[in-house]
């Protein structure tokens, strides 16, 4: 439960579209205690006025419809209500939103790629994306974040009955970027959601993926990979809220850290409410600390309000490279640097195989190689 003794269900009950409903965080709150507020460039306290932009470019599959809409579009905000001040600030401040729709009973023939590119160092912007997958449709979506910006946004994934959505979200910002984002998936009856988050770049990145269910049979798999360098703060705060019977969730996040001041934060909150009988859930976080001066905070939280569950568990561990593995490889003539590289590759290999888009998989592998070469 962390430092706060309140039940998780209480901590996550507050939601509002109005910024004024959330006090300015001080860093003493449970949900903000790990985040370096002084490095958020005013996103948390209302002083981050829009000074630039994030250009959104969409390469859509031919079966997929893409629209740019205004704030008054009635579809926006149906699947997600902001759950903290930055999220509410982003919702109240964006001017245009991108809506991606996969029509009913359609299987997209190729991934739809949404590239979000920051316009320059210190440029502040807010955004909103809605991905609507209609009943029995299937699609793969890539969210690719590049460039430099101070950026806060909300992304809604509305997955209808019997539909399947697979998302790869890459945070590959320049070194000075600040990004605070909420990704929320709302799953209908027998809907399937697969998310793979890759976080590599940026000065401060705080990403909050969450899942809710509206009917039985929903199936969510949340996977994440991150590599933290010196003085970087990469934070992932997950929430899976089981509020209906017979749904499933699985969370697996792995990260590596190197350099003085490298800081990774992973919070995994899973709530199984009294009415969610038959829930099957598990969450796992692993951190590989490669050098002195790096720090990983990992907090898995599980709140179970019913005794009728199919399965529920969590695990977390942070540690250094296994000396025995290194020794085993060196004893077979492999130099230390190569042995180290092979062990780290093994740590990530199973994760990389889950990335649905080969080009992204190769890009992430190359990025890991570049990190190890530093």
TrEMBL record:
GO biological process, one term: iron-sulfur cluster assembly
Name of a matching Pfam family: SUFBD_core
Domain SUF system FeS cluster assembly SufBD core span(s) in chain numbering: 119-347
Similarity comment: family membership: Belongs to the iron-sulfur cluster assembly SufBD family.
Protein name: Fe-S cluster assembly protein SufD
Species the sequence originates in: Microbispora bryophytorum
Lineage summary: Bacteria, Bacillati, Actinomycetota, Actinomycetes, Streptosporangiales
């Amino acid at each position: 439960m962390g430092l706060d003794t309140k039940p998780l269900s209480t901590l996550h009950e507050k939601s509002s579209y109005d910024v004024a409903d959330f006090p300015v965080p001080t860093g003493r709150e449970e949900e903000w205690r790990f985040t370096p507020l002084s490095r958020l460039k005013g996103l948390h306290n209302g002083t981050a006025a829009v000074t630039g932009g994030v250009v959104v470019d969409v390469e859509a599959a031919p079966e997929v419809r893409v629209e740019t809409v205004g704030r008054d579009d009635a579809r926006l905000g149906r699947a997600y209500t902001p759950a903290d001040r930055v999220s509410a600030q982003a919702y109240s401040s964006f001017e245009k939103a991108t809506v991606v729709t996969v029509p009913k009973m359609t299987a997209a023939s190729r991934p739809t790629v949404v590239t979000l590119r920051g316009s320059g160092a210190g440029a502040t912007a807010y955004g909103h994306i809605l991905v609507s997958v209609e009943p029995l449709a299937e699609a793969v979506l890539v969210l690719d974040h590049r460039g430099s910006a101070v950026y806060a946004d909300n992304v809604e994934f509305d997955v209808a009955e019997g539909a399947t959505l697979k998302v790869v979200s890459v945070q590959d910002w320049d070194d000075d970027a600040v990004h605070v984002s909420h990704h929320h998936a709302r799953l209908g009856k027998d809907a399937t959601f697969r998310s793979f988050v890759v976080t590599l770049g940026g000065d401060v990145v705080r990403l909050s993926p969450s899942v809710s269910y509206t009917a039985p049979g929903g199936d969510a798999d949340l996977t994440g990979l991150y590599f933290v360098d010196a003085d970087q703060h990469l934070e992932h705060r997950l929430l899976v809220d089981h509020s209906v019977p017979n749904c499933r969730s699985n969370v697996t996040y792995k990260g590596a850290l190197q350099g003085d001041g490298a800081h990774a934060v992973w919070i995994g909150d899973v709530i199984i409410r009294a009415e969610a009988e038959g829930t099957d859930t598990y969450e796992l976080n692993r951190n590989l600390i490669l050098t002195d001066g790096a720090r990983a905070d990992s907090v898995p939280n599980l709140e179970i309000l019913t005794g009728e569950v199919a399965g529920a568990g969590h695990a977390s561990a942070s540690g250094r490279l296994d000396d025995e593995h290194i020794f085993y490889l060196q004893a077979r003539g492999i130099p230390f640097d190569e042995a180290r590289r092979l062990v780290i590759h093994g740590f990530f290999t199973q994760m990389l195989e889950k990335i649905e888009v080969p080009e992204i998989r190769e890009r992430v592998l190359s990025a890991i190689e570049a990190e190890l070469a530093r």
